[in-house]
């Protein structure tokens, strides 16, 4: 455990040190270049706001009304056919839609079943192995003004499904034998 | 498609609330989440300014070029539409590296930068082939150390908080390979239709 915590605390300062020294060595006007690049960041953040706000409001209506729970209940029989345990279905369905909701579900499952139970381990694996597809598409396409997403959403959601099924199979093999 | 999903989420929520008496919660959620989005944007400003500033130095110093030259053979296979030595490659690589080490807040600005470079290659409002591949790889998120999950497991007194690192890496590798295959499949289907 200690080496993992050490890596995660050292890596960012180390990258900063390396870039600064390398830039100085290559005679880059470091501070001025930093400011110039940073200005782009301000513009970028504000152009993202409407995309994030629109999507987050819509998702929160879906969640707060209870429609999300109903949706999960409706779909769980189908996912159970695929071999996904019933307890984990809410996580599998919320993971691509909302990162905060999925984190809440994972925390709840770990609390309920214990981190070292099969469900706890499966939830941990699932949470860590995919990202929030809807958020990523919103942010990245929003930032560059892409209106036609093409097949991106379908590809992202299918990859999520593959990741979910893979988590179940891998955890079954690794932890129950 | 995103338009339909967006409307579906909000509309089904509101209609569901009509029958189930959760309209109060919906009202509250609308304004709270709008607030949350603003707060998220503000917290993104600091991250975006810092990492884009630092990466500008890396770019000017030629670091990103070196990085992409190192991985050129793999990148060329993954993104055949991007010409060799194009700045997009450097940003794509640094985005992957940041994701790999679980530096989510550094990964986002670099990914946006990569998208901007890819848009220069294909200036329209339609997603290009490389953009779709790039996002497919990002949504399946290749992470070596899932720090958030480990922190939660520690909080609930796991005997071995890091035992899920191995299974996570396996699952994430499979979903990444899956994402690439699905992406290729849809690409060739698009080509055939045209």
From TrEMBL, chain A:
The keyword Ribosomal protein does not apply. It comes from the Bacteria. One of its GO terms (cellular component) is plasma membrane. This is Spore maturation protein B. Keywords: Membrane, Transmembrane, Transmembrane helix. The lineage of its organism: Bacteria, Bacillati, Bacillota, Bacilli, Bacillales. Residues 46-147 form the Nucleoside transporter/FeoB GTPase Gate domain. The chain crosses the membrane at residues 6-25, 45-64, 70-93, 155-175. The keyword Transmembrane applies. It holds the Pfam family Gate.
Automatic annotation (TrEMBL), chain B:
The chain crosses the membrane at residues 6-26, 38-58, 132-152, 164-187. InterPro entries: Gate_dom (IPR011642). Pfam families: Gate (PF07670). Keywords: Membrane, Transmembrane, Transmembrane helix. Coiled coil: none annotated. Residues 42-151 form the Nucleoside transporter/FeoB GTPase Gate domain. It comes from the Bacteria. This is Spore maturation protein A. It comes from Melghiribacillus thermohalophilus.
């Amino acid at each position: 455990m200690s080496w993992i915590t050490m890596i995660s605390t050292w890596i960012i300062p180390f990258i900063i040190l390396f870039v600064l020294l390398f830039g100085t060595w290559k005679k880059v006007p470091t501070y001025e270049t930093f400011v110039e690049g940073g200005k782009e960041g301000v513009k970028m953040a504000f152009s993202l706001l409407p995309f994030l706000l629109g999507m987050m409001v819509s998702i929160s209506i879906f969640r707060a009304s209870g429609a999300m729970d109903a949706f999960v209940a409706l779909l769980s029989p189908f996912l159970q056919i695929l071999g996904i345990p019933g307890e984990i279905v809410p996580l599998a369905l919320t993971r691509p839609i909302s990162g905060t909701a999925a984190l809440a579900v994972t925390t709840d499952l770990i609390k309920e079943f214990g981190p070292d139970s099969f469900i706890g381990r499966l939830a941990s694996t699932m949470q860590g192995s995919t990202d929030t597809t809807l958020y990523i598409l919103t942010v990245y396409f929003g930032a560059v003004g892409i209106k036609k997403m093409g097949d991106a959403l379908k590809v992202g959601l299918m990859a999520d499904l593959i990741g979910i099924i893979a988590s179940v199979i891998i955890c079954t093999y690794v932890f129950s034998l | 498609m995103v338009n339909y999903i967006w409307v579906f989420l909000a509309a089904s929520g509101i209609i569901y609330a009509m029958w189930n008496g959760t309209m109060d919660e919906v009202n509250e959620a609308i304004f709270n989440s709008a607030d949350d989005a603003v707060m998220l944007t503000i917290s993104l400003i600091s991250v975006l300014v810092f990492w884009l500033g630092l990466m500008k130095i890396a770019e000017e110093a030629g670091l990103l070029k070196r990085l992409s030259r190192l991985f050129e053979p793999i990148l060329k296979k993954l993104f055949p539409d991007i010409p060799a030595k194009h700045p997009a490659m450097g940003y794509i690589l640094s985005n992957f590296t940041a994701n790999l080490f679980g530096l989510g807040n550094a990964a986002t600005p670099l990914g946006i930068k990569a998208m901007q470079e890819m848009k220069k290659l294909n200036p329209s409002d339609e997603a290009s082939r490389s953009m779709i591949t790039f996002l497919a790889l990002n949504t399946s998120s290749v992470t070596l150390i899932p720090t958030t999950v480990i922190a939660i497991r520690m909080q609930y007194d796991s005997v071995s908080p890091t035992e899920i690192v191995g299974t996570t890496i396996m699952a994430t590798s499979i979903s990444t390979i899956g994402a690439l295959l699905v992406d290729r499949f849809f690409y060739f289907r698009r080509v055939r239709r045209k």
